[in-house]
From TrEMBL:
NCBIfam families: birA_ligase. It comes from Corynebacterium liangguodongii. This is Biotin--[acetyl-CoA-carboxylase] ligase. It comes from the Bacteria. PANTHER family: BIOTIN PROTEIN LIGASE, BIOTIN--PROTEIN LIGASE. Keywords: Ligase. Pfam families: BPL_LplA_LipB (PF03099). PROSITE patterns: BPL_LPL_CATALYTIC. One of its GO terms (cellular component) is cytoplasm. GO terms for molecular function: biotin--[biotin carboxyl-carrier protein] ligase activity. Coiled coil: none annotated.
Length: 242
């Protein structure tokens, strides 16, 4: 699958995104948009050869298998930066209502990951800029999935029109980022409703050392609460009950 009509996508989201570009192949949509984009820009790619994931992971995919895009926005002066990633994850569940989230923003279907999100902040500009990259597995063969525990929309029997799916995602993302910028409490209320990590026994992998415990909630800054302590970063693994 691939973008068929970029002009249609541009027109359908013009109320929210002023510059929408498409490229066939690129290293990283996040890196390219930070280098060449301005706030309100979107970059969609059929293929990323040097995409980035959280904790330094590489993110690659066969051509046409994934909707890969990045958006660039100004960081609001008062909203916690960490909520941008949560807003993006929530936007994915808006357009794939069967999905749930693993903190902070891994999108799951039946417990398997089908979408990943990486947000990066550029503090060299004033105000700072935030780039959010989203990769959604749309059409994969099971044997090509990169890791155990991954899936895709088609393998979960969810079929989408690629262009319309891009329009829906960008529209949902604009709405959720607007809630973030305005400090709208509905954002976190909706996030907590779809976050499967809350109440689960988890392992939080951090550079400073792993933490295990039950997730008590997600605070107003988007941080995960385990054992009465708030953590702003880390990789969550849902553990089976003992």
């Amino acid at each position: 699958m691939t973008v068929r009509n970029i002009e249609h996508i541009q027109g359908a989201v013009a109320h929210a995104w002023r510059d929408v570009r498409w490229v066939d192949t690129i290293g990283s949509t996040n890196a390219e948009l930070l280098a060449t984009g301005s706030p309100g820009s979107v970059l969609i790619a059929d293929e990323q050869t040097a995409g980035k994931g959280r904790m330094g992971r590489r993110w690659v995919s066969p051509k046409g298998s994934q909707l890969a895009l990045s958006v660039l926005v100004d960081a609001p002066s008062s909203a916690p930066l960490g909520l941008a990633s949560l807003a993006a994850g929530l936007a994915v569940t808006d357009v794939v209502p069967e999905a749930a989230l693993k903190w902070p923003n891994d999108a799951l279907l039946g417990g398997k990951k089908f979408a990943g999100i990486l947000s990066e902040v550029d503090f060299s500009s004033a105000p700072p800029r935030v780039v959010i990259g989203i990769g959604i597995n749309v059409a994969w063969r099971a044997e090509d999935l990169p890791v155990e525990g991954a899936t895709s929309l088609n393998l979960e029997r969810i079929e989408v029109d690629f262009d319309e799916f891009a329009v829906d995602l960008l529209t949902a993302l604009a709405r959720r980022l607007e809630q973030w910028a305005q400090g709208d409490g509905q954002l976190l209320e909706d996030y907590r409703r779809v976050c499967e990590s809350v109440g689960k026994h988890v392992r939080l992998t951090r550079a400073e050392g792993d933490v295990e415990g039950t997730v008590e909630g997600v605070n107003a800054a988007g941080e995960i609460l385990i054992g009465g302590t708030a953590y702003s970063a880390g990789d969550v693994t849902h553990l089976r009950p003992a």
